[in-house]
């Protein structure tokens, strides 16, 4: 199994890069695991308490479960991937049955902050985007998909996202094997990743 880690700041375009990589690969050969599914379970907290959690800090992620699940997939076992709700700030009762594939893509802003997870990744990709561009994308997404209002998004960005990006996410670029600038010139880097994948799954 080839494990590819794709990291980068919020709104950097990781999903776009994942889709570009998947575009020409057999769907049955590739699986995706999102860091967002592995936010820690917070049933013991009230909704108000949950809204105060810093979800952009590594301690918000259940890395232990994520690493355990990747190891199970490498052994050829299926896993029950958690389902997380950004509306309730908690895991739902649902899970997604995830089968091992020749290639597993793990994507998320904080995945390279965890040494054990980095070790499991055969290829580490960092998607870089200008901070203004990331903010614009974050505003659009949080308002349309997560029911947030503009002031809430801007306050969160200024007080949490930006400092967390500078402290935890940007430094992990140093661990990347490939850095993809998320603009119209990223096709070469994406093609390189696709070529490596194709060599492994043929």
> Residue ranges: pLDDT <50 for 5 or more in a row?
none
* Count of strand segments: 7
Radius of gyration: 17 Å
Count of helical regions: 7
Task: Give average pLDDT, whole number.
Answer: 88
- Let me know the largest β-sheet: 5 strands, parallel
Strand order of the largest sheet: 2-5-1-6-7
Structural class: alpha/beta
N/C terminus separation: 12 Å
| Helix coverage percent | 40-55%
Fraction in beta strands: 15-25%
H/E element string? EHEHHEEEHEHHEH
Q: Keywords, please?
A:
41% helix, alpha/beta, 5-stranded parallel sheet, 202 residues
How would you describe the overall organization of this protein?
This protein is an alpha/beta fold and 202 residues long. The protein is 41% helix and 21% strand. The strands form two sheets. It has a five-stranded parallel β-sheet, covered by helices on one side. Strands 3-4 form a two-stranded antiparallel sheet. A hairpin with a 4-residue loop joins strand 3 and strand 4 (90-98). Helix 1 packs across helix 7. The longest helix has 20 residues, at 150-169. The protein is globular, with a radius of gyration of 17 Å. The mean pLDDT is 88.
């Amino acid at each position: 199994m080839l494990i590819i880690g794709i990291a980068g700041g919020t709104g950097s375009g990781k999903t776009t890069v994942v889709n570009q990589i998947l575009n020409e690969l057999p769907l049955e050969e590739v699986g995706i695991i999102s860091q967002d599914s592995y936010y820690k379970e917070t049933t013991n907290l009230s909704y108000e308490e949950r809204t105060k959690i810093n979800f952009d800090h590594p301690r918000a992620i259940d890395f232990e479960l994520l690493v355990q699940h990747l190891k199970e997939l490498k052994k050829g076992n299926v896993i029950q991937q958690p389902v997380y709700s950004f509306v309730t700030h908690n895991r739902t009762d649902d899970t997604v049955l995830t089968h091992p594939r020749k290639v597993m893509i793990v994507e998320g802003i904080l995945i390279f902050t965890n040494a054990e997870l980095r070790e499991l990744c055969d290829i580490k990709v960092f998607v870089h985007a200008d901070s203004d561009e990331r903010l614009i994308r974050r505003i659009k997404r949080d308002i349309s998909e997560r029911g947030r209002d503009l002031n809430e998004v801007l306050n969160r960005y200024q007080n949490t996202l930006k400092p967390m990006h500078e402290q935890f996410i940007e430094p992990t670029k140093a661990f990347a094997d490939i850095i993809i600038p998320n603009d119209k010139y990223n096709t070469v880097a994406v093609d390189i990743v696709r070529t490596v994948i194709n060599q492994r799954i043929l």
